[in-house]
Amino acid sequence: QVQLVESGGGAVQAGGSLRLSCAASGSIVSINVMGWYRQAPGKQRELVADITIGSRTNYAASVKGRFTISRDNAKNTVYLQMNSLKPDDTADYYCRVIAGPFNYWGQGTQVTVSS
Fold first, then answer.
1. Is the per-residue pLDDT at 50 higher than 90?
2. Cβ pair 20, 79 in contact under 8 A
3. Inter-residue contact 33 to 47 (CB < 8 Å)
4. How far apart are CA 33 and CA 49, in angstroms?
5. Are the CB atoms for 45 and 37 separated by under 8 Å?
């Protein structure tokens, strides 16, 4: 089993910054991809950004240039630095880890951006 512990969510004004962290622990063999998704009220969950074990990154168009994803393979931790936040970024943010054939999700952390 793999456990994901997320932290760093909160409330911020538009233009502000937050940094999310997600640490994976447990029976981890090899983590291939780590990523962040978000789900706003009444909307489907969507990819925000992900990063491979080789540090190749992929971003949603709506966050490109504002968010930066990174990972520390030694700590099995993925980060999401979110700058220039907008009210449209308000959502629950979920960490996702793909390890071999397995797929794990965190419990979610709330991000609220006020105008």
1. yes
2. yes
3. no
4. 10
5. yes
User: Token pair for residue 6?
Assistant: 């997320």
Beta-carbon contacts of residue 65 (< 8 Å; ≥ 6 apart): none
Give the 3-state secondary structure of the chain.
CEEEEEECCEEEECCCCEEEEEEEEECCCCEEEEEEEEECCCCCCEEEEEEECCCCEEECCCCCCCEEEEEECCCCEEEEEECCCCHHHCEEEEEEEEECCEEEECCCEEEEEEC
Partners of residue 115 on adjacent β-strands: none
Q: Which residues are CB-neighbours of 114 under 8 A, at least 6 positions away?
A: 11, 12, 13, 14, 87
Q: Count of alpha carbons within 13 Å of 37, Cβ hemisphere only? A: 17
The CB-side HSE value for 25 (13 A sphere, CA atoms) comes to 3
DSSP state of 44: -
User: Is residue 2 predicted with pLDDT exceeding 90?
Assistant: no
Mean pLDDT of the residues in the chain: 95
Distance CA 99, CA 41 (A): 29
